[in-house]
Specification:
This protein has four helices and eight strands, in the order E-H-E-E-E-H-E-E-E-H-H-E. With 160 residues, the chain is an alpha+beta fold. The strands form two sheets. Strands 1, 2, 3, 4, 5 and 8 form a six-stranded antiparallel sheet that branches. Helix 3 packs antiparallel against helix 4. The longest helix has 14 residues, at 65-78. The protein is globular.
Length: 160
């Protein structure tokens, strides 16, 4: 059984409902065994848009990393995601953060996600459910990466 940490988020429509629907659809491809609380963050990269709601999930799945990537892209499309503008607003965004302890660098698929140490909105919810997980390239725990990140964007934990 493969263990994948995913970041899901969005800033359009009913954000909480969109995250919940994403989890429901992922359950068809494995078991979501852990979910962080929801975290609200101002937009990153392109700041003139609504705040994002994000969540980290731990998914146990028999899918390979490449199959999981295709699955999350299909789920995004099913939920109405349109890729029109880099860092632009979106109904849903799903990123594979980690896949077991694998290091994958292929066209269109980089695991661990290369921006993890630079994004507080990833590290804060990841720390909640897996603070002692060790980044397989950097050799540091998520808790340490969160302490060391230079990202100062406020990340607000929202229960429920």
């Amino acid at each position: 059984m493969n263990k994948a940490y995913l970041l899901i988020g969005g800033n359009m429509g009913n954000r909480l409902q969109n995250l919940g629907r994403s989890v429901e659809l992922l359950q068809q491809y494995g078991q979501v065994v852990q979910q962080s609380d929801h975290y609200e963050t101002a937009a990153w990269g392109k700041t003139d848009q609504p705040s994002f709601l994000n969540q980290v999930l731990l998914l146990h799945t028999t899918l390979s990393a490449r199959e999981l990537l295709q699955t999350v892209l299909q789920i995004e499309e099913q939920l109405g995601r349109k890729r029109e503008e880099k860092y632009g607003p979106r109904i849903i965004d799903m990123d594979i953060l980690f896949f077991n302890n694998e290091i994958i660098d292929e066209p269109g698929l980089r695991i661990p996600h290369p921006e993890i140490p630079n994004r507080r909105f990833v590290l804060a919810p990841m720390q909640e459910i897996a603070g002692s997980f060790v980044h397989p390239i950097l050799g540091k725990t998520i808790a340490t990466l969160l302490q060391e990140t230079k990202d100062e964007l406020e990340v607000k934990r929202i229960n429920g």
